């Protein structure tokens, strides 16, 4: 059985074998990024629109299209490869294990408070290099309250939906 998936002018077909493989991978992935990639293709295979997929998975519409293009161009095996290698920054293995213990012990609601803990406890300041660089440029930092950023993010989402990601049929 072949299911057809339509994106603007793109047609992606999933065989029952590919659906079974994707569902198996979906159950076995532990990281969110891989889970979302697989679930995105499966949801489209079940007839959901890219807008519905982006809403359900809480990702951007353009990410849905990018995943679909990648699946269409590269095929299933290349699409499922995860070559992402994280960057630990200036933290050593000992620092990382100490940070993990702290994160399991305490609840942090924002990354800035974690950075403060790292600076106080481990003596590593992640903002030092950026601050020194900013002093040599004409860029000035302006404090924006959190609710203001949410307005900007909502504006960008609106622009992406209505202006940038428009598709003519």
**Estimated helix fraction:** 55-70%
Order of helices and strands: EEHHHHHHHH
| Overall shape | extended
Our count of domains comes out at 2
Measured between the Cα atoms of the first and last residue, the distance is: 27 Å
Secondary structure: number of strands? 2
- How much of the polypeptide forms β-strand, as a percent range? 5-15%
Q: Indicate the mean pLDDT.
A: 76
Nutshell version of this structure?
63% of the residues lie in helices and 7% in strands. The chain has helices spanning 16-28, 32-45, 50-57, 61-80, 93-105, 111-122, 128-135, 146-164, and strands at residues 2-7, 10-15. A two-stranded antiparallel ribbon has the order 1-2.
Could you describe the 3D structure shown?
With 169 residues, the protein is mostly helical. It folds into 2 domains: 2-85, no CATH class; 88-126, no CATH class. It has 8 helices and 2 strands. A two-stranded antiparallel sheet has the order 1-2. A hairpin with a 2-residue loop joins β1 (2-7) and β2. The protein is extended. 10% of the residues are buried. Residues 1-10 have low confidence and may be disordered.
């Amino acid at each position: 059985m072949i299911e057809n998936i339509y994106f603007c002018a793109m047609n992606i077909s999933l065989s029952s074998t590919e659906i079974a493989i994707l569902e198996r991978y979906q159950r076995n992935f532990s990281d969110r990024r891989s889970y979302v990639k697989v679930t995105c293709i499966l949801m489209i295979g079940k007839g959901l629109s890219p807008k519905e997929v982006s809403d359900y998975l809480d990702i951007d519409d353009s990410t849905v299209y990018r995943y679909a293009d990648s699946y269409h161009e590269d095929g299933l095996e290349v699409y499922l490869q995860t070559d992402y290698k994280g960057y630990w920054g200036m933290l050593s293995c000992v620092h990382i294990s100490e940070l993990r213990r702290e994160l399991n012990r305490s609840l942090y609601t924002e990354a800035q408070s974690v950075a403060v803990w790292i600076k106080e406890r481990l003596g590593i300041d992640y903002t030092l290099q950026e601050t020194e660089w900013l002093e040599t440029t004409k860029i000035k930092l302006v404090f924006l309250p959190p609710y203001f950023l949410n307005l900007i993010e909502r504006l960008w989402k609106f622009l992406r939906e209505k202006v940038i990601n428009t598709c003519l049929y």
